[in-house]
What we know:
Layout: H1 17-26, H2 28-31, H3 60-68, E1 75-76, E2 79-80, H4 86-115, H5 130-134
Helix pairs in contact: 1-4, 3-4
Amino acid sequence: MSDDITKGDTLAHIAKDSEIMDYYLSHNETYNFAPTDEKFLSFYTTVTTHGDYSYNPLLAENYEFIDSIEYLGKTTGGVNNIGLDEEYVSMVRSYFASALDTEYLVTLLVKYLMENDLFESTMLCYFLIISATMMG
């Protein structure tokens, strides 16, 4: 285990899905995640979006983007102008930053499929069970 990983770290704060996907696709001959010469069935479970939604330093660029478009508006006196108090703004901001990484993961996969003439014959399925796992 890396010395950079301390007890209490969540997987979402030590790995980015986009980097994991890029690694698998770049080493496809080893892992056979999406072979170009045979039919395949592959699964990937995201980790970046499964966190405690505190600030994640791995996603610094994503926070910059979210802030630059002022998607969550401005916070004045502890209340956000879209009706969220500061605690929830921080959580939602972190979730959006992680969701942008998931979007990039899908972009990498689709690009790989298109570059290898697999896109037209591939079905991508995305399942979301966040309420069942995070809400108890």
